[in-house]
Amino acid sequence: MSRGLVLSYLQAGRAADAERVAQIAVVRWPKDAQLQHWLGIAYFKQGRNENALQTLRQSKALDASHSDIYFDLALVLLSENQYSQAAEELEKAIKLDPSAALPHVLLGRAYQNTNRSVQAVEQFQKALRLQPDLPLGHYHLGFAYASLGRNREAIAEYQDELQRSPRNPAVLYQLGHCLLATGDWKSAVEQLTKAEELDPQNSDASYDLGKALLLQGDADGAVLALRRTIALKPRNPAAHYQLSRALEKLGRKEEAQQELQSFTALKNAQPVTGGMATGPIQ
């Protein structure tokens, strides 16, 4: 009765009730791995990640044969940005059940976040072979390709994803970003405009749109887009630099000089360990 009640509470989104019943049940059945597993999930759903990790590890120690335990443990680790540890748990989950697509996606994301983009590509490809209509599967694969500089392949994946979710601003932005990187400014403007309309708070979209418009010769449009970027993210040195270029093209030399001064001040204020402080303007 207790096991069924715990599960029904979890399925109903009543994590606190699931925790209460599970805590009573595990006192009576301390070696029940499934109860420990569900208790860990209840903790996780309430944001109590430390308790969730401890309990899920106890569940795994009691019964290491269920892929779901490894999977849920990895979910908690991912939420804590512990990507290497999450990858280890997902690798074990996949060994136990190689037919499920989602663990491959999460493993790909864990690899991506630990600078293992080639392995990430492999996992996303496996996930799509297992489930061709996997939500955001092509998006994740596109992102991994882009991180390797394989922009043409990334563009194809983002375009495929847009067939499934044509109004997803994240997909539109990443597609526009890659189109900009390949020099297709007209197409980049089209996609980045849509991305910004759907997500006006995305300063990266307005910044890339400003760059694309400037490269396309529309300095007026670039000024408007870059001012939107700066309104959202005033301490972005690159936005001030690009705005100075756009204003210069319009002959607004005094304003251009002011933006260049803002860029220099912000750039000099950054740490000297990398990024804009030492790298080229993008």
Describe this structure in words.
This protein has 282 residues and is mostly helical. The protein folds into 3 domains: 1-63, Tetratricopeptide repeat domain (Serine Threonine Protein Phosphatase 5, Tetratricopeptide repeat, Alpha Horseshoe); 89-166, Alpha Horseshoe (Serine Threonine Protein Phosphatase 5, Tetratricopeptide repeat); 170-270, Alpha Horseshoe (Serine Threonine Protein Phosphatase 5, Tetratricopeptide repeat). The chain has helices at 2-11, 15-28, 33-45, 49-62, 67-79, 83-96, 101-112, 117-130, 137-147, 151-164, 169-181, 185-198, 203-216, 219-232, 237-249, 253-269. α3 (33-45) runs antiparallel to α4.
Summarize the structure.
The chain is mainly alpha-helical and 282 residues long.
Question: What structural keywords apply?
Answer:
mainly alpha, Serine Threonine Protein Phosphatase 5, Tetratricopeptide repeat, 282 residues, disordered C terminus, single chain, 16 helices
Q: Count all strands and give the number.
A: 0
Shape: elongated
**Approximately what portion of the residues adopt beta-strand conformation?**
under 5%
- Fill in the CATH topology of the largest domain: Serine Threonine Protein Phosphatase 5, Tetratricopeptide repeat
Number of domains in the coordinates? 3
Termini separation: 61 Å
Residue stretches low in confidence (pLDDT < 50, at least 5 long) are: 274-282
CATH superfamily of the largest domain: Tetratricopeptide repeat domain
Q: Calculate Rg over CA atoms.
A: 24 Å
Class per helix and strand makeup: mainly alpha
Query: Count the helices. How many?
Result: 16
Give the topology string: H per helix, E per strand: HHHHHHHHHHHHHHHH
CATH class of the largest domain: Mainly Alpha
Largest sheet: none
Percent of residues in helices: over 70%
